[in-house]
Amino acid sequence: MKIAIIGTGLMAIEYAKVLKGLNESFIVIGRGEKNASAFYEATQIKAFTGGLASNIKQLDNVTHVINAVGIESLKDVTIELLNSNIENILLEKPGVAYPNEINEIAELANRKKANIVLAYNRRFYQSTIKAKELIEQDGGVVAFNFEFTEWAHQIETIKHLKTRAELENWFLGNSTHVIDLAFYLGGTPKELNCYVAGKDKIEWHPASSSFSGSGVSDRDALFSYSAHWQTPGRFVLEVLTTKNRYIFKPLEKLQVQKLGTVAVNFCEDIDYRLDEVYKPGFYLQTKAFLVNDLNSFVSLDEQAKLINGVYKQMSGY
Questions:
Q1: 264 neighbors 238 (Cβ within 8 angstroms)
Q2: Does residue 309 sit in helix, strand or coil?
Q3: 8 Å CB contact between 170 and 205
Q4: pLDDT tens-digit profile of 66-85?
Q5: Whose CA is closest to 184, among 233, 239, 244?
Q6: Contact 106/127 with Cβ under 8 angstroms?
Q7: Fewest CB within a 10 Å sphere: which of 160, 226, 275, 294?
Q8: CA-CA distance, 81 to 152, in Å (whole number)?
Q9: Element (H, E) at 116
Q10: What's the N-to-C CA distance of the chain in angstroms?
Q11: What is Dmax (Cα atoms) for the chain?
């Protein structure tokens, strides 16, 4: 197995830390010298610079690639990797900058028969793994609800550091972190009713700023959601069974309310050490990718279906 990280930004640094923790050797390919220098300071690993095209020979015999470039470059880099016959790609979420880009890379990946999975690391939180186990013990999910309110006032102060693609597609690039986790634990929608408001209320995200909806998942669980980016709020997920209510607030920690009680307590028998030493979820996500244990990932085809059939409807894009 030969591993490559594409990108030298903050996410690439986190992957490098994990690969070092797994005692894996790897190469890194980036573009500019500034990011490569910061990457070296954080990891003590020297990256190839100049971009993927000028370093394409470095991919000879590479079997697994982590695509951790900025959101605006995800599609083009993925296409380059596929055309270089890379078979296994861990693609940073959400996989594309703009929703319509997903079809092009999904079609090419299918032609190349490549394994591409999305890096929704919250699926690999210790809290998520424990909740999944407990939900199955309880007999399955009955209902779930979630909130994906973004702090628009805070994003306003850092928008000069973000690209236009990031800002205009913030729902896709950031809000789907919690939405994907909700559908992972509760099931993907088979019926969905969406309401979107706040068009042009936020200059950098003109499509929408307020969201509400409900539906039925493919596990026959009823669900509802809301998000209002110009009000106070946060990421929250609650999954209900006939025995317990599992509460992710924050998402990294699991709280439980038992049937017949009003008390809410943190689940005590969870070892959070991996999520404290590394960026939460990254260690187990990367390890699963490298050993081709892909059952807990969302595949590229599944992501295409979600973007085309669910996320566009929820977001107002």
A1: no
A2: helix
A3: yes
A4: 999 999 999 999 999 999 99
A5: 239
A6: no
A7: 160
A8: 35
A9: strand 115-119
A10: 40
A11: 63
